[in-house]
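FORM 12-B: Structure-to-Sequence Request
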């Protein structure tokens, strides 16, 4: 059985994602099950749960191109379920995701700039 408990919170516009317990199960080299890290060619990465080699469950995804961070639930590699996206400009979105899109009830905190 896989047990990973993630807690996420926003403190002063910084997304904190803490892993509190991880139990890793590896079936074989090609069918990873459990917790792991996947590095992308562009410098981005995913760290979290895998099920039969697929990104499924809770995890943290860093998008290098946009410098955004997402901490929450994934299904078949997509942002899907409850999660928090922390955007490079300091804005955050906390709520439900479906197929990589914001959906349903949510909380959006945008940073207002007062440049002269």
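FORM 12-B RESPONSE
SEQUENCE OUT:
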């Amino acid at each position: 059985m896989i047990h990973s408990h993630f807690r996420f919170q926003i403190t002063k516009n910084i997304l904190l994602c803490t892993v509190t317990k991880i139990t890793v199960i590896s079936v074989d080299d090609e069918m990873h099950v459990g917790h792991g890290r996947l590095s992308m060619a562009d410098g981005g990465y995913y760290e979290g749960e895998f099920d039969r080699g697929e990104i499924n469950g809770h995890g943290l995804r860093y998008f290098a191109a946009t410098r955004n961070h997402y901490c929450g639930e994934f299904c078949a590699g997509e942002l899907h379920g409850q999660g928090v996206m922390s955007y490079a400009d300091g804005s955050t979105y906390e709520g439900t995701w479906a197929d990589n899109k914001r959906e349903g009830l949510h909380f959006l905190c945008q940073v207002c700039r007062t440049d002269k």
